[in-house]
Amino acid sequence: MQKSSEHIRLERAYEELRIQLEEANDIIHAIRSGEVDALIVNGQDGHQLFTLKSADHTYRIFIEQMTESALTLDESYRVLYCNSQLARLLGLPLEKVIGLNFLAFFSTEDQAFVRETIDGAWEVDTKAEVDIINSSGTSLAVQLSLKALNLDEGTSLSVIITDLSELKKNQLLLETRNRELEAARKNADELNENLENTVRLRTQELETINEKLAAVNDLQKEVNGQLKDALDALRESEENLQSAFDAAELGSCNLDIKTGRVEVSERFRKLCGLPLEGEVSWTMVLSSVGTEYLSALQGVLQDCINLGKPLDYTYPIKHLISGENRWMRIVGKLKKGSDGDFDSFYAVLMDVTDQKRDEQRKNDFIAMVSHELKTPLTSMKGYIQVMQLKARGTMNGFADKALQGAERQINKMTGMINGFLNLSRLESGKMLMDFQPIEMSVLLKEVVEEYIATVNSHNIKYTFQPGFFVNADRDKLGHVVNNLISNAVKYSPADSEITIDSYLEGGTAVFRIMDHGMGINENDIPKLFERFYRVENNRMSTVAGFGIGLYLSAEIIQRHGGKIWAESQLTKGSVFYFCLPLINPE
To answer: In what order do the strands lie in the sheet with 563-569?
Structure first.
């Protein structure tokens, strides 16, 4: 009877199962009889090794407890067995390590060296150092100790792996310390050598210094003698100076800026009527000063102390004992202390009453002469104006021009006479001020427009901000503005531009006039507002004047409680300012 295909397939399956059963029975028998202690099973994840707990139990515990990593290899570099320490070293589960190619744990560059080392270890026990790579990609320095093992089941290669990371780290640290110690030793040798050289040099220097000190001692004796002679000469000079002070009837005082303590000479006390004995305060010194000059004196004194300006001021006093009115002139400056800072003020006081009286007589004479000159000049101006009318009626052009020139000269002379009159009134205290609240822009506009109406030689531009109220004498303040405009016209070329404006700065109203004229030397600017001062140079020789206009302007502004000043550069022009304190418009 012929077998079907299904029957044949079943017979084959039965035969395979029978063979597998016989193999299983053989394995079980071998396990029971102790012929095997491990099994290699080919599964889905490759070859896996299964060991029996009973086989060589003590030996296996010893291997597992080793601090080194241990494994065995076959001839194809496959891991047959390893302990847990190797798995921890590589960062992999134990079951993942067994069965892998051992070369996979080394870099491509090191694999040839490891392969050669393993191949040679089958014949000769070998040790080698190499970097092994764990699962995180970190390289670890290790030592491989390789030895071939001949076992009953065959020959395998035993590998002990010692982690050299800490050893390498300590070795590197030791090398670093050795280098540092060697460098320190060399440095110490150099320091010792330098110290010896320094000591030798210092010894030589000290010997030289001792020789120089001996010479200095001799020189010091000579200098001491010279100093004694100088002190004697200085003492004699001071006595001569005091004699000169006494002969000139000059008083002196010294004010300590920090403490306020005052030292005054006997002559100073007599000039002011101060007590001849005992201490004197600065308040006592100022108590003799005329009330109307006290504020100005304190102002120039503060400028001297704060700004370092020399002090030179003339003022009246009332003698504290006799009650006599006298004029004093004080001249002083700051003195530096031992620390280099200004710490005291030294001044000389002199009685200038006779000079002031002479000046008063001179001013009275000037006022009288000026007043007497005004009458004939007024008459001459009237005659010239009548003659101008007749000359124009007869169409006599030459006579008309000549009379116009004569009128201009009379106006100049009248202006100079008025200046002398104002000067004499000012210095004699007879120039009265009629202070009234006025709007500064209105006054400025009136003066400027009146000036422009009579002078067309320059391009005058002006702009005034309204609403600035000041307490002022309209005529006197107008005289100041007119004088500043006249100077700008006088000292700048024809057809040039002159700019005038006013503005607010803090609590003051500021007037400013700017020209593009010849300019003023920097050294002359501080003296511009002094009486009769004129800049001396070739360009000024053709400009008429006596140098009293700016002096009068400065005095008028000062009596208004304001300030006047100038800025200038040669060939680039000048800028003149004055400022007045604002008041409430009401």
So the answer is: 459-464, 497-505, 508-514, 573-581, 563-569
CB 513 within 8 A of CB 575: yes
Cα–chain-centroid distance for residue 47?
Answer: 81
Among residues 502, 492, 499, which one has the least CA distance to residue 578?
Answer: 502
Contacts of 576 (CB under 8 A, 6+ apart): 484, 487, 488, 512, 513, 564, 565, 566
For residues 543 and 558, what is the distance between their CA atoms, to the nearest angstrom?
27
**Cα distance between residue 287 and residue 298, in whole Å:** 12
Which among 99, 97, 100 has a CA at the least distance from the CA of 87?
Answer: 97
Q: Which amino acid is at 273?
A: G
Query: In what order do the strands lie in the sheet containing 154-163?
Result: 79-82, 69-73, 154-163, 139-151, 126-133
Mind listing the pLDDT tens digit for each residue in 396-430?
A: 666 766 666 666 666 666 656 665 555 555 555 55
Structure tokens that stand for 314 in this block: 């003339």
DSSP label of 520: -
Separation between Cα atoms, residue 278 and residue 264, nearest integer Å: 10
Q: Which residue has the higher pLDDT, 398 or 292?
A: 292
Please answer whether residues 163 and 142 qualify as being in contact, where contact means their C-beta atoms are separated by less than 8 angstroms.
Answer: yes
Residue 147 · residue 155 · CB < 8 Å = no
Which are the contacts of 320, defined by CB distance < 8 A and separation ≥ 6?
272, 273, 274, 287, 288
Distances (CA, A) of 306 to 257, 343, 566: 10, 11, 21
Distance, in Å, from the CA atom of 265 to the CA atom of 276, rounded to the nearest integer, reads 9
Count of C-beta atoms within a 10 Å radius of residue 421: 21
Pair 311, 301: CB distance under 8 Å: yes
Task: Tell me, letter by letter, the H, E, C secondary structure of 522-565.
Answer: CCCHHHCCCCCCCCCCHHHCCCCCCCCHHHHHHHHHHHCCCEEE
Least confident range from 192-196, 524-528, 533-537, 560-564: namely 533-537
Are 554 and 525 spatial neighbours (Cβ–Cβ below 8 Å)? no
At 490-538, the pLDDT tens digits run 888 888 999 999 998 888 999 999 998 888 888 888 888 886 666 655 4
Number of alpha carbons in the 13 Å side-chain half-sphere of residue 117? 21
